[in-house]
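I wish you would study the pair of lines that follows with an eye to the fold:

===
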Amino acid sequence: MDQTEHIQHLEASLNDFDPALRRQSLAELVALAEEGRIMLPPASDVANMHCHTFFSFNAYGYSPTGLAWLARRRGYKLVGIIDFDVLDGVDEFLTACETAGVRGSTGIETRVYLPEFAAHEINSPGEPGVAYAIGIGFTSNTAPGAAAAILQDMRKRASQRNQDMLGRLNPYLAPVSVDYARDVLPLTPAGNPTERHLLAAYVTAAQKAGVPWNEFWAEKLKAPVEQVAKMGQSSPELQNLMRARLMKRGGVGYVQPGASSFPTLDEVNQMIVACGALPCCGWLDGVSSGEQRLAELLELQISKGVVTFNIVPDRNWNIADPEQRRVKVNNLYQAVKVAGELDLPINVGTEMNTYGNKLVDDFDAPELAPVRQAFMDGAHFIYGHTVLQRSLGLGYQSQWAKAYLPGRRERNAFYTQAGYRVAPGKAGQSQLQALSSRLSPEEVLASLSKSQTGV
């Protein structure tokens, strides 16, 4: 094959389920770039700090290694992964970012029950008291002690929810049936399926069963045959309709969650802090009754350990309806304002776990101009914490940070400045080698300034 085909083959191999092949392919691509055979752009002031990988579900099939290379190939200054219920991609991603020369961070996302808001929808539509909770800034797949038990419980709960859903869907979709071990688990690299994997399994099962697919899905989804036929047998549009009609509220596979369905926020934040990472409050769009009480919600979550705030910008401004766009853009600005007043750095990204999600936000959109700097500051804050914790154990939750930087505002400022000063990859590692826990924050920043490479 010629060089272009070889590069394309290597890039496709970055998302193979074989971790050794992923590592080897990235090393070859980086070597080709260093030889000048792959031209890489300079890093631009954009960030996607919330990308799901194939360890939970990425709509484009990206592995942690694949996402690190994507960022380097396209010139994203910072990139972060967040997976549902697992830390399986943490070590791989941070190592890949160091190899590729990208500023990276890692995280986890799950659903929790918040009894103080039991009467309010928060950021999980139609599910009062249930909230998506996030942890960012992890530096290892391995969790210590009790934190490992909490993680194991999260994984076990997710698996049981999936199997219970299949138990409700299989009778309804007969003669189409899916077996969890045979049909679903092989779609994942580490046994952590999501609803999206279940959908793919049902599409394949319908094809194997030989049912007239458009009539079958039209009947089961209560949709016109013409609508289903236009979507295509394996299309993202069909899977999105399946998810809405079968798995979400009102669907045969759905069960309304309650207080026992998910861990509490306290439990999840305990695990995050024990891992040296940062509890993060997820925000949807400011429309729900819970998010209408944002200051109260955030103050409650801060009392439970939250120190950061997550936003998915695109769904808050890239909206066709002018009035909806006006409302949600105003909600976005207000959310950023409240987060700033409460000293919560902001994590932003597109998620990539739904077909049609962007690879990176449009940071040049006029609607994002008033909040762009807050987004970039937040991304550098998370990177600053991550590299100092990973290399030296001097992250946000360290005893060093608590001794020298007792207040959230000063701690935020330090890690943000550090994030701007530490270069990615090998250059950053060289900078960090000159540091130690004997230095004060001022001395750390001074040392990083002296060693800046301009990367």
